[in-house]
Structure prediction request, 125 residues.
Amino acid sequence: MGAVKARPWLKLTPHFIEGELACRCCGRLLVQTELLQKLEYLRCLAGAPVLVNSGYRCPVHIGAVGGATNSYHLKGMAADIRVPGLAVESLAALAEQAGFDNIGLYQQHGFIHVDVRGYRARWDG
Ligand SMILES: [Zn+2]
Prediction:
């Protein structure tokens, strides 16, 4: 499952385009359908734009940010997201409702990490 160059403006779902989820360093993209479905559902629950700080990260980018080599970002299964004006706890509650298994709260940075790893987990970043 290799990442391919994203076509930045192509719609992945009604509310998300490839450029939003592509790697910030190289513009390549790998994204799992389950992640997209849950992000779109979350967008509908929030009733407001869900901004993606980070979606797919290529191996080079993972290295640059000091991320784990088994990161779910590398597998196209994770995103760091925020909704302006919505508290981190509230966003996390909506993410749970949207079906995300794993939710990490980055209170000080105002975003949450969500992924679809297949088992439930909660943590503070
Ligand atoms: Zn990259």
